[in-house]
Every structure is written in C-alpha cells, then in structure tokens.
Write a structure and sequence with these properties.
- The complex is a heterotetramer, with two copies of chain A (217 residues) and two copies of chain B (216 residues).
- Chain A is an alpha/beta fold and 217 residues long.
- Chain A has helices spanning 7-12, 32-40, 60-65, 81-88, 99-110, 174-177; strands at residues 4-5, 19-22, 46-49, 69-74, 93-96, 115-118, 132-135, 138-143, 148-159, 164-165, 181-192, 211-213.
- Chain A has a single domain, classed as Glutaconate Coenzyme A-transferase.
- Chain A has six helices and twelve strands.
- The model of chain A has no long low-confidence stretch (mean pLDDT 97).
- The model of chain B has no long low-confidence stretch (mean pLDDT 95).
- The chains are: A alpha/beta (217), B alpha/beta (216).
Chain lengths: 217, 216, 217, 216
C-alpha cells in the first residue's frame, strides 16, 4: 500500500537534469498536476521523452515555455512553435523518432529487451547511424531501448496498491511508460480502496508504481 | 465543388466496407463525410481509438476522447480504446487496411515525402512513417500543385517518409497509381484534360488508352 | 458485425497441414470447443504453437492424443507424457522455446517487427543457430517473428464486432496470438450486443477477429 | 522438520516486504506458508496473475484462475490479471524482485541447470530461463544431494538455464552464496557440520571463519 502524496512533494523528488518519460498525446492523458508542480519549482535541464510537446500553455508545452527543458525526444513538435523556435536557437536539443518506434523503444526498456527490429524508417533520415538487419529477406532497423530516470503517468483511477485504469484516448503512452521509468509516479483522477478494481480492469499493475499522487479533487 | 471536396469524394470511393481506416489530419479527415451511408468502416485514430465517431454536441465533450489532432470526438458502438503500442502494432503489423495521408511531394518510384522541409518546417514525422511503412493500402490525398509548382516529381528532393511505393495518389486533377515502371494516370479530374495533368506534373506519366474522368 | 458460427464450421476452415497459434496455459484459457471440433474432423499434420501441450485428455492434449499434430513449438511439454513419447518416437517434432521468448516472437509477428533482442537463452542451448547482438555492452539473442496460419483464441466475452474481454489467468497467450494469425477465430463464453462492452474493457479489438464462434450455452 | 520444510522456512527469511515474488512449482511454492504474518508481498504466477491467493474453498474454484502448475487459486485484494507478454515483461524487465526455483545442478560459477536431462527428461524450460535471466534476486531451493550424489558441482554437466550467477542457494544442509571467486558457505543446516556440507558437495566451498547455523 502507498500513501498518496501531494504534487509538490512529488516534484521535489525529481532533480534538475533528470530524464522524464511523460505520458500524453497533445496534452490528453498528461500528468498535468505534476507538470504544474515542476514548473512551480522551476525545474531545469530536464530531458523530456514524450509523444509530442503539446501546445504552448498545455501540458508539456508549459515545461517548454518555462525553460525547464534542455532536450526533447518526441515524434512530433509541429503544434508547438516554441519548441521549434528553441530548437532553432539551440536552447533545446530535439530528437525526432517515429511514433511507433518511440513507443516500442520505451517498451523494450520496460520489458528487458535489448532492442527491436522495425521496418519503419528504412530508406529515410531515421536510418542514420543505425544498424540495419535483414530477416527473411526484408530490411529492418535495429532500434534500442529508451528508458527514463522517472516516468510521469496520468491515469483515470488508481487504488492504494497503485493499480491503474485509463480512459479512452488518455491511455496512449502511459501504460508503456509505466514499465520504463526507474522511478514511476502516477497521477490518477481518483483513488479507490484496494479490492474495488477488478483484476481484469487493471492495465498497469501497482507493483510498477513507486509514488501515487493524491486524487484530483 | 472545390479542390478539397473533389479529392475527399474521390478518395471515399476507395474505402472498402468493414475495413479499418486511418485518416490523417486536415484534408484526409474530410473523407469520412463522403462515405456512402451503407459503407460501414471503423476509423482508427493513432492516439488510441478504434471506432472514432463524430464531434460531440457542445457541452458533451470528454477531455479524454480526442482524435489525433486533439479535436473532441465520440466513440461509435463497438469502439475500443487502445494504448500507443497496440495502436502502432496494428499499423505496422498490417492490420490497418487503409491510411489516407497528405503529401508534400511524391515521385516516379511512388515514394512519398510529407514530414519535413529542411531549414523551414520540422514538425516531426509523428505516425506518418509507421503508417506508410505498415498500412495495407496507402492513399496520398493532396492538391496537385503547390503555388503553381508541381508536387509530383521525377524524384523527391525533400526527406522521404518511407521507402515504399504508395498505393494511390488522388488530387483534384488526377488519380494516379504508382506501378512497377512508373506513375499510371488512371483518371482525370472534373473538367481537366490529360494535357492539363501532364503540364502540372513534373514526373513522367504512363498513359494507357483513353483516360476516364472521375465519377463523383 | 460478424455472424457467429458453429465449432464444426470453424474447424472445416482449417485445412490439414496448417500452423495454429492456440491460446491457453495448461488448458486454462484454451479454445476447447474448437479443439474438440478439430479432433472430431480428424485433422492431421497440424503445427501447434502454444505455451504447452496441457495434459492427456485436456485442451491441446486431445490434439496430441488423437494424432492431429506433427509439430509442436512450445515452452513446456513436461506434463504431457504423450507429447514426450511421440517426440522420442519421431511422430512429433518439438521445438522448445523459453516462454517469454515465445510470446515476444508471436507479438513481433503480430505487430510487424522483424524480431526482438532478448537476454534469455544467452549461454544456453537456446543460442544455437541464432545471431547474438551486443547493445550497450550486453549480449542478446536475435529472436525472429513467429506467426500462424490461424490463431485459435479463447475469450470470456465478445460482442458481434469481435471485441474480446478475457478473465483472470485465462488471458495468457490469447491477446497476443490474436494479433499474429493470418486468420483469427475467437471462441467466447458469451456474446453480448455491440455497444455493451466499454471501449476501455476491450483487450482485443474486433477488427483483429475473422470468425466468431457461437456462445458456449 | 523434514528437509523441504527446513529449506522453505529458510528461504522465507530472504523475502522482503512489499516485493513481487515468483515461486516455482513444488518445493519453492511451500515458501509462502512460512512468511511472517506481517510481511506482505505480492506473489506472481507467470501464467498471468499478480496477487496470487490461497486455494479456494471446495466448490468455489474458478476454472479461469489457476497458478502456473494448473492448481486452483484465489486472487488477493489489489490483484491484477495480466497477459503472457506483460507477465514476462515484468520478469525480464527487472520488475520481479525475487524468484525461487528448484535446481538439478549448480556449479562454482553460480550457474544453474534445471530444465532438462538429455535423453531422459525433456520437459522444456517453460519460464525458467526468463526468470533466471531477469529477476533481481534468484534463489535456488533444492535438497542438497540426489540419491546421495552431489548436485553442487565444479561445473554443471546438464544444459544450463542461464549464463548468470544466481543470488543464493538454500538446501537443508547449507546456505551458499555464489560470489565472484566461488561458492561462499554462509550457514549450515540444523545438526549439520561444515565437514558434512563439504563431503556432500563436489564444488569447492569458500569458508570464512565461523559458519553459523540456520536460525529457523
């Protein structure tokens, strides 16, 4: 069982310079209270690994605007002009990774694989510096695991063991990232007593969760 | 009928009943509006829903249910929520029947470039590389030229999205099928002649006999 | 929407010589009615890819006893002495694969990966004939995808789109195999109208399912 | 106390509170009976449950809820059902704190052989190779000898389960920790002398000072 903690206490656990896997897709299913707490404590030099950097004023966009971030590994930054500006000015280093490759690299880290072979990116810029391997006559890129010092996970409902349920398109990267952070912090909307969630509804087993944020309201 | 509607209506004819379809943001998403009522398909949004529905009535939006562009949507009966690993597993694993994407350039090999203009626009590839590498049928829907300049070229000079021949190109001027030996002109747009298409296209086009006009 | 079919009609779709991914773990979560129908139609020369061959008289054990199977790819055959006897007599060819590797190979086939790198099997007999790849100073085996002509899936509840829910330890290989069969046949306990299952409860989207068996009762 | 109970009681002392633990079929599964009441752990069964509970009352079995040996079990409050990919993802990904397995042989390198006797017994490795390769702590629990013959050898002659030094070996005669330079004898079993252990063991044992007796 875990005592639920406040967002600022959770943000204090995350040192400057840390690498963070952050759930969410254009801000949907992102851990918004954790992000606000990181902005409030003026976190610096973070590496953010996420699908995208949302929009200015939303989710991960707030970390970008507030100067918390020095590196981004994402599939898409197109809807956040600030990320693009800071990339061009050299303030933020950006690695672009195809979305399917990004989630498989994170999964590989979480499930103890040394990498995966994907057809995505063959014959494109993504190929650069990577090993190409032929299996059954088809070429694949070897993509290596991508872990984070922390994973910041948004969930719909938790219990005090840390078991998590997600809602609709707010799943996205969250269930995968929950396996790949050295320390995993979950931010649920609500928390219910242990035993209330059916074992079949659990999508992230609580044993993966290190810290649980208080419910939203 | 404007160029975009021509394209969307024509692409809609390619969608087969009972299939799984991913529509890109912008022009491709208009295709859904022109499907015949009796053609039932499941739309996938790569952010994690199979069975994407229409925009909800005002005040009934769910912040946890959006399309890949972040717009509020609903879910049809029989919908399924999936995580990003499953979403791209379906795409890369050949379970997605059709993807409709926009394009910046496409060339005689049938190769698409649609994710970056070096030094100008670097949005990232998002899901495009996986979609083009993995979907069974890849349809590129785009206006035929950009500011009067051809987008269908001998060879793309923008970075490629994938080293794969796409299935079909639909513009307001033409339907073009990339085949083994080049680009086959299959149909012309409303009021457009074969010569019009040729002069708006840098790539060589293969023309076999009479080229019919789109039936919209 | 799919019309539910009878088990014997489903078994008729499966030709002799086919390779079958069959869900289940010691018979728990196996498609028992499909197996019985294959035995009844005296299927022959099947390749069975499954975690195990259960026990004589149970699940996949019935296929073994009835002489339906010429090849087994599994992680464990220890509780079925008939499989062991038929292996020794040469009647059945057996490939043994570590359980975690087996499920990742099937997943790789289902999600379009060319293979995965696993630490499991390094320095053991499993290594034989495989490429070893070093990532970040650690050795891994390259394990390649494993697909089936058919996947035979047991589920707790389905709707007529083919969406599936699973129960407790009857999940096991089923959700993974449902992605990796060229033709996928699902055998649910019950079938409910479309719209009854919450999108968040669906573990296998119906678009993966080709044929749906009638409910059990 | 028979040999198996000695082993199970001693292994139970190694289990840390609030951890995830996988117990193999047979002797290892007995360990659960000897955990102190105040030590709460989650037991994982590799067939897909975290939070394995005791055998249900007769007539209340669920055919869809068994342990990895196929025996009926229950689920504790806070349990989670998982598929085989997640189950082995947890094992191989370093999320499993402790695995307790049986052994056929173990050697001075700390390498375990426990899945086959060529020409005699070929059950398959099941989950053993993943468990030994991936768990944070690997405890081998086994009787010290087989029909009077040592099982702890200079070098295994049966096929290895993994090329990894296990964390601890617990028998009814000894607790042995494989370390960089060999096998360190840490404790002796009830009524067993260091000389008894040495003569029942083929491998060289490192002995540092006084070797305490197990406290059970």
């Amino acid at each position: 069982m875990k005592q639920a903690i406040k967002a600022d206490a959770a943000a204090d656990l995350i040192p400057d310079g840390a690498s963070l896997l952050i759930g969410g897709f254009m801000g949907v299913g992102s851990p918004h209270r954790l992000i606000d707490a990181l902005v409030a404590r003026e976190a610096r030099d973070l590496t953010v690994i996420a699908n995208d950097t949302a929009m200015p004023g939303t989710g991960i966009g707030k970390l970008i605007t507030s100067g918390c971030v020095s590196k981004v590994i994402a599939s898409h930054i197109g809807l956040n002009p600030e990320t693009q500006q800071k990339m061009i000015s050299g303030e933020i280093d950006v690695d672009l990774v195809p979305q399917g490759t990004l989630v498989e690299r994170i999964r590989a880290a979480g499930v103890g694989l040394g990498g995966i072979l994907t057809p995505t990116g063959i014959g494109t810029l993504v190929e650069e510096g990577k090993q190409s391997i032929t299996v059954d006559g088809k070429d694949y890129l070897l993509e290596t695991p991508l872990a984070g010092d922390f994973a910041l996970i948004a969930a719909h409902q938790a219990d005090y063991v840390g078991n998590l349920e997600y809602s609709l398109t707010a799943h996205n990267f969250n269930p995968i990232m929950a396996m790949a952070g050295k320390t995993v912090i979950a931010e649920p909307h609500t928390i219910v007593p242990v035993g209330v969630i059916s074992p079949d509804s659990v999508k992230t087993p609580g044993i993966l969760i290190d810290h649980l944020l208080e419910r939203a309201h | 009928m404007d160029a975009k509607e021509i394209i969307a209506r024509r692409v809609a004819q390619e969608i087969q009943p009972e299939t799984l379809v991913n529509l890109g943001i912008g022009l491709p998403s208009m295709v859904a509006n022109f499907l015949p009522k009796d053609v039932h398909v499941f739309f996938q949004a790569e952010n994690g829903v199979i069975g994407l529905g229409a925009r909800p009535p005002e005040g009934m939006e769910d912040p946890d249910l959006t399309d890949a562009g972040g717009g509020f949507v609903t879910a049809v009966p029989g919908a399924a929520s999936i995580d990003s690993a499953m979403s791209f597993g379906l795409i890369r694993g050949g379970h997605l029947d059709t993807t409709v994407l926009g394009g910046l350039q496409i060339d005689e090999r049938g190769y698409l470039a649609n994710w970056m203009i070096p030094g100008k626009m670097v949005p990232g590839m998002g899901g495009a590389m996986d979609l083009v590498a993995g979907a069974k049928q890849v349809i590129v829907s785009m206006v035929h030229t950009a500011k009067g300049k051809p987008k269908i070229l001998h060879e793309c000079n923008l970075p490629l999205t994938a080293q794969r021949r796409v299935s079909l190109i639909v513009t307001e001027m033409a339907v073009i099928e990339p085949v083994e030996d080049g680009l086959l002109l299959k149909e012309t747009g409303p009021g457009v002649t074969v010569d019009d298409v040729i002069s708006a296209t840098e790539a060589n086009l293969i023309i076999r006999g009479e080229v019919p006009s789109m039936q919209l």
